[in-house]
Design brief:
Signal peptide: 1-22
Keywords: Signal
Number of domains: 2
Organism: Erythrobacter litoralis
Helix content: 25-40%
Distance between the termini: 33 Å
Number of helices: 16
CATH architecture of the largest domain: 3-Layer(aba) Sandwich
CATH topology of the largest domain: Beta-lactamase
Strand content: 15-25%
Catalytic activity: a beta-lactam + H2O = a substituted beta-amino acid
Protein name: Beta-lactamase class A catalytic domain-containing protein
Radius of gyration: 23 Å
Strand order of the largest sheet: 6-5-13-12-11
Length: 437
């Protein structure tokens, strides 16, 4: 869940600047060499325009190190998504500085200005080794155009951009009451339940617990020693900032499933039963490897019956080969069995997080705000949690404007029949954020 492969892709539109494929600074060169590097950089930048339009094969322009992160077919798919939303790439508008091997780049497209960074590798025939577009500034965009592009995505989508105290006056809304699978964005419910427990005096952020749970990646803590001492604040930070599944399951163990389920209901989720009994991330993985007969029986059972089935489930019921195949091939599993919320449900949840006097939960959300510096400058606070698995994508931000008012931007996409092109929803979310408010 919440795989990070697309963060180094060309169209990781809303990602803040991240370490890219090659970060070594080119050595200082004499004037003739610097001039040659400048010419090579400009030439490669122009070729990027042609590659985006499909006029040149990516293999002719990009380095092997780039393809290690973004294979050619992946790049072609992303380019098609970009040109589908923003029209053809027209020309390089800015390359600054134009001398050396690394520069800020802006490419004018028919409907947007793509802004980001580019680098070439002199040791690899000056091929492009890094390309990351951080923002896409729409040209003559509108809510109607965004709504049409959102509707064109295969499957079901929803979105909401609104002040939390003015949900009836949204800047943008599509299927705001439609619940979709959340993937790892459900971890916001765990975070809010932890904040509630701290506020009630039952727990403290600096409480230390022993690590006893072990899930599967994403994350790092599955490799930590069992019994390692860790604070609840560290668990929460790992859970939200890198979507650590083991940290999530450890917090659920500390809180108890009933407390997280109570938070789902207390935050105003319109149909909490869809997410009850609460699955741990390990149980979610297991659900992708059980038989169709098990799934059918689980769907037919009531909440108590489902709890009993989870308690009785053994390793013999789960095919780990099937689990691995699901997440390796981008083939959606049983995405109707996991965690669910609508944009309006998530607004209720974020209102609880925004309204707490203790800002610890908001601080955790802000570790990885997933906004470029340019976008972040429009807000005094930005927090983020997303969720991604085959057939499921959610992007949710908590934002605070200059007047101290909190906003939600959330966009979701489910398709039980095929994997998703994450960049498509990323760029749509950015366009929504650019709408006048």
């Amino acid at each position: 869940m919440n795989r990070t492969a697309f963060l180094v892709a060309v169209a990781a539109a809303l990602a803040a600047p991240l370490p890219l494929a090659a970060q070594d600074t080119a050595p200082v060169a004499s004037e003739p060499v610097a001039q040659a590097a400048s010419s090579a950089l400009e030439a490669r930048a122009d070729e990027v325009v042609a590659v985006i339009n499909g006029d040149i094969a990516p293999e002719e322009v990009f380095s092997d190190s780039f393809f290690a992160d973004v294979p050619p077919e992946r790049f072609r798919a992303i380019s098609q998504q970009l040109t589908g939303q923003f029209g053809a790439a027209i020309a390089v508008e800015t390359l600054d500085p134009a001398d050396g091997t690394r520069a800020r780049i802006e490419i004018r497209m028919e409907k947007a200005i793509a802004k980001g960074g580019i680098a070439i590798d002199p040791a690899a025939e000056n091929r492009v080794s890094e390309l990351l577009f951080r923002t896409f500034d729409p040209i003559d965009d509108s809510a109607a155009k965004i709504r049409a592009d959102l509707a064109a995505l295969p499957g079901t989508t929803n979105a909401l951009f609104a002040r939390l105290d003015r949900l009836d006056q949204p800047v943008f809304a599509v299927n705001a009451d439609t619940q979709l699978a959340l993937g790892s964005a459900f971890k916001l419910y765990v975070l809010s339940a932890l904040a509630e427990a701290v506020e009630a005096g039952d727990l403290a952020w600096d409480d230390v617990v022993e690590l006893t749970e072990k899930s599967f990646p994403s994350g790092q803590m599955q490799d930590w020693p069992q019994g390692a001492p860790v604070t609840l604040h560290t668990l929460a930070t790992m859970m939200i900032s890198i979507s650590d599944n083991t940290a999530t399951d450890q917090l659920i163990s500390v809180l108890g499933k009933d407390r997280v389920e109570a938070e789902i209901a207390a935050s105003g989720n319109a149909d909490p039963s869809r997410s009850v009994p609460l699955l741990t991330t390990r149980e979610l993985f297991a659900m992708r490897g059980v038989s169709e007969e098990f799934l059918a029986a689980y769907r037919a059972a009531d909440d108590d019956g489902q709890r009993a089935m989870l308690a009785a489930m053994t390793e013999a019921d789960v095919s780990m080969e099937q689990v691995q195949a699901t997440f390796a091939t981008e083939t959606p599993g049983a995405i109707d069995i996991e965690w669910f919320a609508s944009p309006r449900d998530l607004a209720g949840l974020l209102a609880r997080i925004a309204g707490r006097e203790d800002d610890s939960a908001r601080g955790v959300m802000a570790v990885q705000p997933r906004l470029s510096e340019e976008r972040a400058a429009d807000w005094t606070y930005a927090g983020f949690k997303g969720g991604s698995e085959p057939g499921v994508l959610n992007l949710t931000w908590l934002l605070r404007d200059g007047q101290g008012e909190y906003w939600i931007l959330t966009a979701g996409w489910n398709n039980p029949d095929a994997g998703l092109e994450n960049a498509a929803l990323e760029t749509i979310a950015q366009r929504i954020l650019s709408l006048s408010r």
